[in-house]
Design a protein that fits this description.
The protein has helices at residues 2-6, 40-59, 85-94, 114-126, 144-154, 183-188, 197-209, and strands spanning 11-17, 62-68, 70-72, 100-102, 108-109, 111-113, 131-136, 142-143, 162-164, 177-178. The chain has 213 residues and is of the alpha/beta class. The chain has a single domain, classed as NAD(P)-binding Rossmann-like Domain (Rossmann fold, 3-Layer(aba) Sandwich), CATH 3.40.50. A three-stranded parallel β-sheet has the order 1-2-7, with helices on both faces. A three-stranded mixed β-sheet has the order 8-5-10. A two-stranded parallel sheet has the order 3-6. The protein is globular.
Length: 213
Amino acid sequence: MEACVKNKVKKLIYSSSASVYGDAVEVPMTEAHPFNNKNFYGSTKIASEAMCTAINDRYGLDIIGLRYMNVYGPGQDQHNIYSGVVPIMLNKIDANETPVINGDGSQAYDFIYVEDVARANLCSLESDVKNGFYNVGTEVQTSIKQLCDLILELKNSPLKVEYKPYSADDARQFVKNRIGSAKKAREEIGFSYKDSLSDGLRKLIDWRESGQF
């Protein structure tokens, strides 16, 4: 941010995260939803958002922060343990191994395709908004069980998912429900998603099968 000010950059688009919200008090979560984050990653995002606001106020640098929901798609590291449930499950299926999901599969999230996220960044850049924070999601609630069933269907796989209870010290058990409102982004920066979960997953599977990752 200091480098942007020094070099007279007109606008900065900051990649924040839905992690700032923690578990949902109400759904869909608007941008006014309280910060219920309980992990270090979300804490850094909250602190960075506060710094964005302070920099904008003091130096006049235009900054838009985007709170991405659960992003998936081509280009994502398919083997990193932090990549999320989608690549982990696809890796298991391709290895003909039983997919294992933490919890009972009832956890529900907002999954958004990477090309939609890229468009949200462009919408932010081209908008007249000088300072603000926006959810980037679909406002569609999908449980982990629904997600896994869809992936198995798209892969024509006979495998069955094994659901494994969280360990007592696993912080991921705290976030069970997180779906963001798309209203503010649609009205103020003109962003709406295009790819359904089924279409996005098909594109991801095609990319994986092309051998590009």
